[in-house]
Design goal:
Purple Acid Phosphatase, chain A, domain 2, binds zinc ion, 6-stranded mixed β-sheet, about 260 residues
Length: about 260
């Protein structure tokens, strides 16, 4: 089984289409969506349509989806995020708003030992940036009994991976730059004996300094967590943001991946 993992698409149709074309070339059996379909980008309606057409095996909402759907106020967002989400809420069709409102809050189980969430398993709004955040998530008892063996998360827009240490603490995992598989992507081997947290980065608004769209493939049979990056038509995505009258910075940051 190979899962395509999409997170933080943020209304960026050009990035989503480039990722799907790349992923279809690589091959996958089912899709997991980790939330934030909308916000920031200029094509929220089309992104919702294309994403829901994938008939994901599992999907969770993100904080931007929740606010766009009117389930919580936009007042907590910083100015540019609020401008974008207020515009998104005004521009979406009733059908699309209903679809966003119906997205489940994470965490959601995919299959035994694999779950997805938006921010963290204990709080969809919590950011997992460092080992301290990861420790809380890795030791959090989501269900009665065991913490998740593999939990996929998003929200930070920065690729990252952490595993429970062999004796104690948290180990930060980095894909080996020489670990290119036949798909020419970096990957980590998944040690199934240890609770592991993985963020493959953001499709529609990368923030790790690499402007290419980010996504992942979880190859269960081969035990590989594959981190992929894809060039896309940034110029058109920027034009769509500006055409919507959204803050210029939301367009400019796509050039820098920051
Ligand atoms: Zn996001």
């Amino acid at each position: 089984m190979r899962y395509l993992v999409l997170s933080d698409i943020h209304g960026n149709l050009q990035a989503l289409e480039a990722v799907l074309a790349d992923a279809r070339g690589v091959g996958f059996d089912a899709t997991l969506v980790l939330g934030d379909l909308v916000g920031y980008g200029g094509d929220p309606e089309a992104v919702i349509d294309v994403t829901l057409d994938l008939r994901a095996a599992a999907i969770v909402r993100g904080n931007h989806d929740r606010v766009a759907a009117g389930l919580s106020p936009s007042a907590d967002f910083h100015d540019q995020a609020r401008a974008a989400i207020d515009w998104t809420r005004q521009t979406l069709s009733a059908t699309a708003l209903d679809a966003l409102a119906a997205l489940p809050e994470g965490p959601v189980d995919v299959t035994a030992g694999l779950m997805i969430c938006h921010g963290a398993p204990f709080d969809e709004d919590h950011y997992i940036f460092d080992a301290r955040d990861a420790w809380r998530a890795l030791t959090f008892d989501v269900r009665d009994g065991e913490p998740p063996m593999l939990c996929l998360f998003g929200h930070t827009h920065v690729p990252a991976a952490f595993a429970a240490g062999r004796r104690h603490g948290v180990e930060v995992l980095l894909p080996d730059p020489d670990s290119d598989d036949e798909d020419r992507a970096q990957y980590l081997r998944w040690d199934r004996t240890r609770a592991t947290l993985v963020n493959f980065g953001a499709v529609g608004q990368p923030r790790d300094g690499d402007p290419r769209a980010a996504y992942g493939i979880v190859d269960l049979a081969r035990g590989r967590l594959i981190f992929r990056r894809v060039e896309y038509d940034i110029k058109t995505a920027q034009d769509r943001i500006l055409a919507a009258g959204l803050p210029e910075r939301l367009a400019l940051r796509l050039d820098r991946g920051a």
